[in-house]
Amino acid sequence: MSAVTRPAPRTRTRTRPAVSPRRAGRLALRYALLVGVLLFAVFPFLWTLAIALTDKTAGGSIYAFPASLFPRAVTLNNFAEVYRTFGLGKYIWNSVSITALTVVGTLVVSALAAYPLARFRFPGRGLIFGVIVATLVLPGETTFIVNTLTLKKMGLLGTHLGVVLPTVAGAFGIFLMRQAFLAVPQALLEAARLDGAGEFTVLTRIMLPLTRPSQAALGIFTLVTTWNAYFWPMLVLSAAPDKLPLSVAVLKLKGQFNYDPFNIAAGALFMMVPVLLVFLAAQKLFMRGLEGAVK
Amino acid sequence: MRASWRDTLLSYAFLAPALVLLTLFTFYPLAYGSYLGFTEYGGARFAQGLAPRWVGLDNFRTLLADPLFLTSLGNSLKYLLVVPALQLASLAVAVLVSRELPGMAFFRAAYYVPVVTSVSLAAVMWEWVFNREGTLNWVLGALHLLPAGGAFGWLNNEHTAFWAVMLVTFWRGFGYYMVLYLAGLQSIPAELEEAAVLDGASAWQRFWRVTVPMMKPTILLCSLLSTIAALRVLEEVLVLTNGGPLNSTYTALMYVYSKAFQGFNFDYGLASAAGLVVAAVALLLSLANFRLFRESGGDEGRA
Fold this sequence. Notes:
By secondary structure, chain A is mainly alpha-helical. Chain A contains 16 helices and no strands. Chain A has helices at about 1-5, 10-15, 20-55, 75-85, 90-120, 125-135, 145-155, 160-165, 170-180, 185-195, 200-210, 210-230, 230-235, 245-255, 260-280, 285-295. In chain A, α5 (about 90-120) packs antiparallel against α12 and α12 packs antiparallel against α15. The radius of gyration of chain A is 26 Å and the shape is globular. Chain A starts with a helix and ends with a helix. Chain B is mostly helical. Chain B has a single domain, classed as Orthogonal Bundle (MetI-like fold). Chain B is built from 15 helices and two strands. Chain B has a two-stranded antiparallel ribbon. The longest helix of chain B is centred in the N-terminal third of the chain and has 32 residues, at about 5-35. Chain B is globular. The interface between A and B is large, with 95 and 94 residues.
């Protein structure tokens, strides 16, 4: 219909003249929009960085715009100060411990569960797979209540293990690893079995080395989620303030009565920088993992 | 092919850790939590080590008579307004970054950064933005758009706190949906686009006639995920406003959490009942989402 009324676009796309003014205008508009969205996405980080690096002894408020966005005197003192006065080392260690346990646990449990689901026929396979799929859609608004009661009974309330255990078996990881295992050629497995390898050896010597990218994606995904998790660790560790991860502790900093925005910004960066580095280094894997989980 | 004993045994051995953990921490709490919703449990009863006592629908009657619960449920439903805004924006941003132009990889990564930010950092950073003396007021002031009465704290005002919290949800979410939409966009066969171009379709027509119909499954998935996430919003509220001011940001899951864990009279029975109500609403909304999409997709859905 529009081909009749407006033939212009056809000729333009076919002959491709050097960038027309109209096209250049569109391109400029596109980039202007991109930059606008960029400001919205990263402004809070840039400001936090600026505050964290500001030498507060030079005077001035964080709210003196736009001066506070461009600190005149730059210092790393805030980092040292917040680390010392709030004993950040302890919280960083807690975050590392919880995150490491969760990542390792998730990788092991997911790989073990995914192997038979991908490679064996056994009675109950369909049911088990269905049940795992169901966890994705079943609304679990009350699970956190019962889980804290269970942890209490097991004596794990207030421990890192208590934070970790309920989170390591998940449909996301099992799916992702199952997809990866399905892609390994059957011939390789059979060759290994003919050579007398047991199933555990097949898993560790053949399946795992061939599915490193998926494991990396799952590991990074789990790492970022766990490092950032707030609600669940806050709940499990509410009676053990010394065991809190940084994600929860950073808000305690904010609640301190001598509220110092420079220190808080520095503390926030302690928390943000590791995740940011991991994300930037593994962006592709990260996004692939996300897409893999959805397909 | 019949399964051998050996394969079966091995399979269950490999599956055991996952099955034990899923049973203990997912299926059992789902079942037991649903049961608790119909019992009196918590408070003194729990302290004395007594078992839950079956009370039928009592908890649900209590909930219906509790203005705080009704407010919280209303707020949660109002929070769903974030869904269309979030989905339209993410789809638009995905289209914006889908063209392979210089710098696109950078923009995509940068837009994703809020997604990998913890809610506690978001709370720290956005509080400065929403503060009385914060960036938002400064920007509005520079544009001569400050509301009557001058600068005020967006999170401390019962008329604005809700929208401020929602903006943070929006900020943390749009990069996530952008990536999903981007994956959907890339799966559209190039020939379709080219055919539309040859037929003389304008960019706008191509978007509505080719892109959107082809993206229907992705749009459904994203709006479903985002609807459920919006209904379950808790962390943002907890860290930004703790439900205040004047309960204006108090959401249904906040109610579940605070009945179960805040104060001294924790009431697991009532909290579980409230959780069941939220779960039921979530299920209904998911079904509605599917319905809506099937109906609206009837005529143009098949390309």
